[in-house]
C-alpha cells in the first residue's frame, strides 16, 4: 500500500468507501508465529502478531467475514461455485510451536477453524531452518556488517537488530547459492561451532491435537526450499514426501499446499503441474489479493500477510484497497 494512499485515503473518506464496497470473494489471511518476538533466540521477523492482537484480529474477522474451512473452500472449487459473500480462510505457515501453545487456545475460544501449512522436515526433530540460524548468529555475534561471497552488497548494521536481521535474510534469499551454503559461510565468518539452541517447531503429537480440535492441515513442502530452484526429482520429493508424511502420521487427507516464501518467482507452471500430479487441489501464495471464485486459479490463491502492530484501520485499508484476482 502506498504511503500517499495511507495518508490521504482516510482524510478523503476513501478508506471507508473502499472498505464498505469491498467485493464478494475469498479473503485469506496468513500468520506465521504468534507471541512476543523478544522471547525467541531465533528470527524475530517471522512473528505475525502477539496473542492479544490475534484475539483482536479474530474478533474483527468474525464480524466482517464468514470464516470457512479448507474443506469448504475445496467444495467451492470442486463445484466451480461462485462465492457470493465475503468469506475468509485463516492460515498459518511453517509449523512453529506457538501455533499450538498460543494460537490454538485463542482459535478454540473463538470457535474458529484455521489451517496450518506444515514444512514436514521441521516437525518433530532438531532441524533449525536457515532463517532462524542466521538470526541466531547475528544476535550472538552482533557484527557491524556482513558480506558473503555471493552477495553484491555489504549489509551494514546501522539501525536496530531486527532491521539488520531482516536485511541479512533478504540478501540470503536473493543470492543464487543455496541458503544452507550461505549459513556455512556465515558460521565460518563467526568461527561458530555449528551448534544451535533447540528448534521451536511442533512435533507430530501437537499436530494431532490441532486435528482433534477441528483444525485442518496442508503441506508447505518438506525442506522449505524455494521450489523453482529445484531439479525435477527434488521438486517431486518436496511435494510428494510432505503429503505422504502428513497423511501416514496423522491419518488425514492432504489436498492443500502453500508455497514456501510464496512470491511470484517461487512457483511456476512446472510446480503447479507437480501439485496436480500429486493430488493437490489448491495452493496458496503469499501475496495480497481477493480471490473471486470461480475465476481465480485454485493453484494461485492469494493471501493477506498479517504483520505485527496492525490496527483495525490498517486491516480495513489492506482489504479495502486490495487487488482482485
Ligand atoms: Zn514458510
Automatic annotation (TrEMBL):
Alphabetized UniProt keyword annotations: Signal
One protein family per Pfam: Polysacc_deac_1
Signal peptide start-end: none
Family annotation (SUPFAM superfamilies): Glycoside hydrolase/deacetylase
Domain NodB homology: from-to ranges: 86-325
Location relative to the cell: Secreted
Main subcellular location: secreted
PROSITE patterns: NODB
PANTHER family according to UniProt: POLY-BETA-1,6-N-ACETYL-D-GLUCOSAMINE N-DEACETYLASE, PTHR34216
Protein name: Polysaccharide deacetylase
Species name: Alteromonas stellipolaris
Amino acid at each position: 500500500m502506498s504511503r500517499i494512499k495511507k495518508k490521504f485515503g482516510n482524510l478523503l473518506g476513501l478508506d471507508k468507501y473502499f472498505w464498505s464496497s469491498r467485493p464478494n470473494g475469498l479473503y485469506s489471511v496468513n500468520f506465521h508465529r504468534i507471541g512476543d518476538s523478544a522471547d525467541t533466540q531465533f528470527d524475530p521477523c517471522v512473528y505475525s502478531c502477539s496473542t492479544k492482537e490475534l484475539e483482536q484480529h479474530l474478533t474483527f474477522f468474525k464480524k466482517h467475514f464468514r470464516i470457512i474451512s479448507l474443506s469448504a473452500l475445496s467444495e467451492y472449487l470442486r463445484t466451480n461455485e461462485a462465492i457470493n459473500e465475503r468469506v475468509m480462510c485463516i492460515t498459518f505457515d511453517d509449523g512453529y510451536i506457538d501455533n499450538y501453545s498460543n494460537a490454538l487456545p485463542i482459535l478454540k475460544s473463538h470457535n474458529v477453524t484455521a489451517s496450518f501449512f506444515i514444512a514436514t522436515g521441521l516437525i518433530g526433530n532438531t532441524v533449525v531452518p536457515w532463517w532462524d540460524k542466521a538470526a541466531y548468529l547475528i544476535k550472538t555475534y552482533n557484527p557491524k556488517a556482513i558480506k558473503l561471497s555471493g552477495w553484491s552488497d555489504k549489509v551494514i548494521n546501522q539501525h536496530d537488530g531486527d532491521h539488520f536481521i531482516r536485511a541479512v535474510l533478504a540478501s540470503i534469499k536473493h543470492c543464487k547459492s543455496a541458503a544452507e551454503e550461505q549459513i556455512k559461510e556465515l558460521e565460518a565468518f563467526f568461527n561458530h561451532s555449528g551448534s544451535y539452541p533447540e528448534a521451536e517447531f511442533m512435533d507430530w503429537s501437537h499436530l494431532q491435537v490441532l486435528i482433534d480440535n477441528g483444525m485442518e492441515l496442508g503441506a508447505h513442502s518438506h525442506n522449505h526450499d524455494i521450489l523453482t530452484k529445484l531439479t525435477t526429482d527434488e521438486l517431486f520429493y518436496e511435494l510428494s514426501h510432505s503429503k505422504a508424511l502428513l497423511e501416514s502420521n496423522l491419518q488425514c487427507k492432504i489436498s492443500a499446499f502453500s508455497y514456501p516464501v510464496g512470491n511470484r518467482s517461487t512457483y511456476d507452471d512446472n510446480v503447479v503441474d507437480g501439485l496436480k500430479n500429486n493430488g493437490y487441489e489448491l495452493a496458496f501464495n503469499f501475496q495480497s489479493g481477493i480471490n473471486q471464485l470461480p475465476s481465480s486459479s485454485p493453484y494461485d490463491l492469494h493471501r493477506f500477510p498479517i504483520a505485527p502492530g496492525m490496527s483495525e484501520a490498517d486491516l480495513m485499508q489492506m482489504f479495502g484497497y486490495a487487488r482482485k484476482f
